[in-house]
Specification:
Blueprint lengths: L2 E4 L1 H9 L2 E6 L2 E6 L5 E6 L12 H14 L6 E8 L5 E7 L4 E2 H6 L5 H16 L2 E3 L7 E4 L2 E4 L5 E3 L6 H11 L11 H14 L6 E3 L3 E3 L1
Parallel strand pairs: 1-5
Antiparallel strand pairs: 2-3, 3-4, 4-6, 5-6, 7-9, 8-11, 9-10, 12-13
InterPro entries: Kinase-like_dom_sf
Organism: Isoalcanivorax beigongshangi
Protein name: Toluene tolerance protein
Length: 216
């Protein structure tokens, strides 16, 4: 992982040169650079946080490297940008994962039951290997030719043991929390997803109710 020292003004210039992909009230979060790489900007939101000890850009890059080591497609980090005149921001440049998000594919009606079964097995593998990706949802899962990948992986913890049942339940709650995905998850796709997970482990979800949320 290569780390480069940047000034705040240099980062702002890089942001200005990017086409906005995602932004919030604070400004650009993800942008496309002219060379095809992506720029992801992290801003420190709280004074007292673990960002004081390890910059989020560094954690993001480490998580991407860890996933690559396990053969899981993830952003390919080019540079970790550490500001030499501020600890309020950091950034990474990376090559994005080729493919579509699960959310995009579901909305287009392009997800088969076989693919959903593969996804269930993939999530079971994450849980069994102690990878607690707390922000898992269809918008952060990439369907690609080389398998199933993950993006936006800052909010991930690596355990030295399989996830507990409670952690698995919370992970599934997050997976199903976005209501825009619900109309595209018919009974056949849900059954395939469950069957795929159960192929490796016992699914900790017993009932799905879109009005009341996921019952565990």
């Amino acid at each position: 992982m290569r780390s480069r020292s940047f000034s705040h003004s240099q980062l702002l210039a890089l942001m200005d040169a990017s086409d906005v992909i995602e932004a919030d009230g604070s400004g650009l979060k993800v942008g496309a650079l002219p060379n095809g790489d992506f720029l992801k900007v992290f801003r420190r939101k709280k004074w007292l946080s673990r960002d004081m000890f390890t910059l989020p850009a560094v954690r993001f890059a480490r998580h991407c490297e860890l996933l690559h080591e396990r053969g899981i497609p993830a952003p390919r980090i080019r540079d970790t940008l550490v500001l030499n005149d501020s600890n309020q921001m950091s950034a990474v440049t990376y090559r994005p994962v080729a493919g579509r998000t699960l959310r995009q594919a579901l909305a287009a009606g392009d997800v088969s039951e076989r693919r959903m079964a593969e996804l269930g097995q993939f999530i079971a593998r994450l849980h069994d290997e102690g990878l607690y990706f707390r922000s898992i949802h269809p918008g952060n899962i990439i369907l690609c030719d080389s398998g199933i990948g993950l993006i936006d992986v800052l909010d991930m913890r690596v355990r030295g043991w399989p996830l507990t049942r409670g952690e698995r339940q919370r992970n599934w709650r997050h997976f199903f929390r976005t209501r825009e995905d619900h109309p595209h998850l018919d009974n056949g796709l849900l059954a395939a997803l469950m069957a795929g997970y159960n192929h490796r482990n016992e699914l900790p979800v017993t009932d799905f109710d879109w009005e009341q949320g996921v019952r565990l």
